[in-house]
Amino acid sequence: MTDAIARAAALLKEHRDSIDRLDAILVYTLAERFKRTQAVGQLKAQHDLPPSDPFREAEQITRLEELAREADLDPVFAKKFLTFVISEVIRHHEQFQK
Question: What does the buried/exposed string (b/e) look like for 46-75 if buried means 16 or more CB atoms within 10 Å of the residue's CB?
């Protein structure tokens, strides 16, 4: 193995290790977010509030798209991601209503 290939392999391992740590952060962050949204869903169910709040959802999507632009992340991807998360949250909230 040449020095260049060995350096590339070391850099690749370093990048992958960093990606693995970031994936763990994402999973734990999503878990914490869903704990909060489940508490919101239970509160809504206890007080007969609707499981969905379209105005807030639209505000959140707009806010996330702006954050994505600031972070140099594709805002279309960010919107798709948040839309998916919101749909899961609403699904959970609807289950609490039953």
Answer: eeeeebebeeebeeebeebbeebeeeeeeb
Q: What is the pLDDT of residues 41-55, one digit of tens each?
A: 999 999 999 999 999
Angle at 25 between CA 59 and CA 82, to 5 degrees: 25
Q: How far apart are CA 90 and CA 37, in angstroms?
A: 9
The Cα-based distances of 28 to 24, 25, 45, 79 in angstroms read 6, 5, 26, 21
Can you give the pTM of this predicted structure?
0.81
The span from the CA of 81 to the CA of 61, in Å, is 10
**d(C-alpha 97, C-alpha 38), whole Å:** 12
